[in-house]
Amino acid sequence: MTVKPFDGSEARELLQEPLYYLGLRFPQEKDVLTPLILANTNYFPGLIQLYCAKLIEAMTKDNYAGYNEGESPIYQIEKKHIKKVLSDSSFTEQIKEKFEITLKLGNDRYYYIIALIMAHLYHEHGGSSGYLPEHVLDIADGFDIPDIRELTLENIKALMDELCELNVLRTTPDERYLFSRYTFFQMMGNAEDVWDKLDKLAE
Protein backbone atom coordinates (compact mmCIF):
# COMPACT_ATOMS: atom_id res chain seq x y z
CA MET A 1 0.00 0.00 0.00
CA THR A 2 1.30 3.43 -0.96
CA VAL A 3 1.07 5.86 1.94
CA LYS A 4 0.37 9.25 0.43
CA PRO A 5 0.99 12.59 2.11
CA PHE A 6 -1.68 13.78 4.52
CA ASP A 7 -3.82 16.79 3.78
CA GLY A 8 -3.28 19.92 5.87
CA SER A 9 -5.76 19.18 8.65
CA GLU A 10 -4.64 15.55 9.06
CA ALA A 11 -0.98 16.55 9.15
CA ARG A 12 -1.59 19.29 11.74
CA GLU A 13 -3.53 16.89 13.93
CA LEU A 14 -0.77 14.27 13.82
CA LEU A 15 1.86 16.89 14.57
CA GLN A 16 0.17 18.94 17.26
CA GLU A 17 -2.13 16.69 19.29
CA PRO A 18 0.38 14.13 20.65
CA LEU A 19 2.79 16.96 21.50
CA TYR A 20 -0.01 18.86 23.21
CA TYR A 21 -0.69 15.96 25.59
CA LEU A 22 3.03 15.83 26.39
CA GLY A 23 2.96 19.49 27.39
CA LEU A 24 4.57 20.95 24.27
CA ARG A 25 2.81 23.97 22.80
CA PHE A 26 3.14 25.80 19.52
CA PRO A 27 2.56 29.57 19.49
CA GLN A 28 -1.16 30.34 19.56
CA GLU A 29 -0.91 33.42 17.36
CA LYS A 30 0.71 33.57 13.94
CA ASP A 31 1.97 30.00 14.09
CA VAL A 32 4.56 29.83 11.31
CA LEU A 33 6.33 26.87 12.89
CA THR A 34 3.75 24.21 12.04
CA PRO A 35 3.80 25.00 8.28
CA LEU A 36 7.61 25.00 8.39
CA ILE A 37 7.70 21.50 9.91
CA LEU A 38 5.04 20.14 7.55
CA ALA A 39 6.84 21.54 4.52
CA ASN A 40 10.10 19.90 5.58
CA THR A 41 8.40 16.55 6.25
CA ASN A 42 6.42 16.79 2.99
CA TYR A 43 3.22 15.99 4.93
CA PHE A 44 4.27 12.32 5.14
CA PRO A 45 2.97 10.74 8.37
CA GLY A 46 6.13 8.74 8.99
CA LEU A 47 8.34 11.81 8.68
CA ILE A 48 6.02 13.87 10.88
CA GLN A 49 6.27 11.19 13.57
CA LEU A 50 10.03 11.06 13.15
CA TYR A 51 10.26 14.82 13.53
CA CYS A 52 8.10 14.76 16.66
CA ALA A 53 10.28 12.06 18.21
CA LYS A 54 13.42 14.13 17.58
CA LEU A 55 11.74 17.28 18.90
CA ILE A 56 10.73 15.50 22.12
CA GLU A 57 14.26 14.14 22.50
CA ALA A 58 15.74 17.58 21.96
CA MET A 59 13.32 19.35 24.29
CA THR A 60 14.28 17.09 27.20
CA LYS A 61 17.95 18.04 27.02
CA ASP A 62 18.88 20.75 29.50
CA ASN A 63 21.59 22.10 27.25
CA TYR A 64 19.20 22.38 24.37
CA ALA A 65 15.83 23.80 25.35
CA GLY A 66 16.81 25.18 28.73
CA TYR A 67 13.74 23.80 30.47
CA ASN A 68 13.64 21.98 33.80
CA GLU A 69 11.44 18.92 33.29
CA GLY A 70 10.27 18.93 36.88
CA GLU A 71 9.05 22.51 36.79
CA SER A 72 8.33 23.53 33.26
CA PRO A 73 5.33 21.99 31.58
CA ILE A 74 4.08 23.78 29.53
CA TYR A 75 7.07 23.69 27.14
CA GLN A 76 6.78 26.51 24.61
CA ILE A 77 8.15 25.45 21.22
CA GLU A 78 10.17 28.23 19.63
CA LYS A 79 11.70 28.77 16.21
CA LYS A 80 15.20 27.98 17.48
CA HIS A 81 13.98 24.52 18.61
CA ILE A 82 12.43 23.81 15.22
CA LYS A 83 15.51 24.88 13.28
CA LYS A 84 17.77 22.80 15.51
CA VAL A 85 15.91 19.60 14.65
CA LEU A 86 15.54 20.49 10.98
CA SER A 87 19.30 20.96 10.72
CA ASP A 88 20.04 17.63 12.44
CA SER A 89 22.09 15.58 9.96
CA SER A 90 20.47 12.24 10.84
CA PHE A 91 17.02 13.76 10.35
CA THR A 92 17.86 15.29 6.97
CA GLU A 93 19.44 12.00 5.90
CA GLN A 94 16.27 10.11 6.79
CA ILE A 95 14.18 12.62 4.85
CA LYS A 96 16.37 11.98 1.80
CA GLU A 97 16.12 8.23 2.33
CA LYS A 98 12.31 8.34 2.54
CA PHE A 99 12.20 10.57 -0.53
CA GLU A 100 14.23 8.05 -2.52
CA ILE A 101 12.05 5.18 -1.29
CA THR A 102 8.99 7.08 -2.54
CA LEU A 103 10.58 7.52 -5.97
CA LYS A 104 11.64 3.87 -6.22
CA LEU A 105 8.26 2.30 -5.45
CA GLY A 106 7.73 -0.88 -7.44
CA ASN A 107 10.10 -2.44 -9.96
CA ASP A 108 9.59 -0.11 -12.92
CA ARG A 109 11.51 2.92 -11.52
CA TYR A 110 9.28 5.29 -13.50
CA TYR A 111 8.97 7.83 -10.68
CA TYR A 112 12.71 7.84 -10.10
CA ILE A 113 13.57 8.28 -13.78
CA ILE A 114 11.06 11.09 -14.26
CA ALA A 115 12.42 12.87 -11.17
CA LEU A 116 15.96 12.53 -12.54
CA ILE A 117 14.87 13.93 -15.90
CA MET A 118 13.10 16.82 -14.18
CA ALA A 119 16.30 17.52 -12.20
CA HIS A 120 18.29 17.45 -15.44
CA LEU A 121 15.87 19.97 -16.98
CA TYR A 122 16.27 22.19 -13.91
CA HIS A 123 20.05 22.07 -14.22
CA GLU A 124 19.94 22.80 -17.94
CA HIS A 125 17.16 25.40 -18.15
CA GLY A 126 16.18 26.44 -14.62
CA GLY A 127 13.07 25.66 -12.62
CA SER A 128 10.90 28.72 -13.00
CA SER A 129 8.55 27.93 -15.88
CA GLY A 130 7.91 24.19 -15.51
CA TYR A 131 8.06 21.31 -17.98
CA LEU A 132 5.71 19.14 -20.00
CA PRO A 133 5.58 15.36 -20.55
CA GLU A 134 6.98 16.08 -24.01
CA HIS A 135 10.13 17.47 -22.44
CA VAL A 136 10.52 14.35 -20.30
CA LEU A 137 10.13 12.12 -23.36
CA ASP A 138 12.66 14.19 -25.34
CA ILE A 139 15.30 13.76 -22.61
CA ALA A 140 14.54 10.03 -22.36
CA ASP A 141 15.08 9.76 -26.12
CA GLY A 142 18.28 11.77 -25.91
CA PHE A 143 19.73 9.51 -23.21
CA ASP A 144 18.21 6.43 -24.87
CA ILE A 145 16.41 5.34 -21.69
CA PRO A 146 14.12 2.47 -22.75
CA ASP A 147 11.93 2.44 -19.63
CA ILE A 148 10.56 5.91 -20.42
CA ARG A 149 11.16 6.12 -24.16
CA GLU A 150 8.65 3.34 -24.79
CA LEU A 151 5.84 5.12 -22.91
CA THR A 152 3.24 7.34 -24.54
CA LEU A 153 2.80 10.97 -23.61
CA GLU A 154 -0.44 9.98 -21.87
CA ASN A 155 1.47 7.42 -19.79
CA ILE A 156 4.08 9.98 -18.79
CA LYS A 157 1.44 12.57 -17.90
CA ALA A 158 -0.36 10.00 -15.72
CA LEU A 159 2.89 9.21 -13.91
CA MET A 160 3.65 12.89 -13.38
CA ASP A 161 0.14 13.39 -12.02
CA GLU A 162 0.79 10.51 -9.59
CA LEU A 163 3.99 12.27 -8.49
CA CYS A 164 1.82 15.32 -7.81
CA GLU A 165 -0.41 13.15 -5.61
CA LEU A 166 2.72 12.08 -3.74
CA ASN A 167 3.58 15.77 -3.35
CA VAL A 168 6.87 15.35 -5.21
CA LEU A 169 5.74 17.45 -8.19
CA ARG A 170 3.17 20.21 -8.57
CA THR A 171 1.47 21.78 -11.56
CA THR A 172 1.53 25.38 -12.71
CA PRO A 173 -1.59 27.25 -13.90
CA ASP A 174 -0.65 26.43 -17.52
CA GLU A 175 -0.39 22.69 -16.64
CA ARG A 176 3.37 22.39 -16.57
CA TYR A 177 5.20 20.44 -13.87
CA LEU A 178 7.71 21.54 -11.24
CA PHE A 179 9.17 19.97 -8.11
CA SER A 180 6.82 20.79 -5.24
CA ARG A 181 9.83 21.88 -3.17
CA TYR A 182 13.22 23.09 -4.33
CA THR A 183 14.93 20.78 -1.85
CA PHE A 184 13.53 17.78 -3.76
CA PHE A 185 15.42 18.99 -6.81
CA GLN A 186 18.55 19.39 -4.69
CA MET A 187 18.18 15.84 -3.33
CA MET A 188 18.51 14.46 -6.87
CA GLY A 189 22.14 15.60 -6.98
CA ASN A 190 24.24 18.17 -8.81
CA ALA A 191 24.30 18.41 -12.61
CA GLU A 192 27.12 15.88 -12.97
CA ASP A 193 25.48 13.38 -10.59
CA VAL A 194 22.15 13.59 -12.41
CA TRP A 195 23.82 13.20 -15.81
CA ASP A 196 25.75 10.12 -14.63
CA LYS A 197 22.59 8.53 -13.18
CA LEU A 198 20.66 9.10 -16.40
CA ASP A 199 23.57 7.79 -18.47
CA LYS A 200 23.61 4.56 -16.43
CA LEU A 201 19.91 4.06 -17.20
CA ALA A 202 20.56 4.07 -20.94
CA GLU A 203 20.78 0.95 -23.01
Tags for this entry?
mainly alpha; elongated
Can you characterise this structure?
The chain is mostly helical and 203 residues long. The protein has helices spanning 8-21, 33-40, 45-59, 62-65, 79-86, 89-103, 110-125, 133-143, 146-149, 153-165, 182-187, 191-201, and strands at 24-25, 75-76, 169-171, 177-179. The strands form two sheets. Strands 1-2 form a two-stranded parallel ribbon. Strands 3-4 form a two-stranded antiparallel ribbon. Strand 3 and strand 4 (177-179) form a beta hairpin. The radius of gyration is 20 Å and the shape is elongated. The mean pLDDT is 86.
Q: Could you tell me how far the N terminus lies from the C terminus, measured between alpha carbons in angstroms?
A: 31 Å
The amount of helix comes to: 55-70%
**SS strand fraction:** under 5%
Task: Give me the count of strands.
Answer: 4
Strand order of the largest sheet: 1-2
Mean pLDDT: 86
Regions with little confidence, pLDDT below 50 for 5+ residues: none
Briefly, what is this?
The protein is mainly alpha-helical and 203 residues long. It is 62% helix and 5% strand. α3 packs across α5 (79-86).
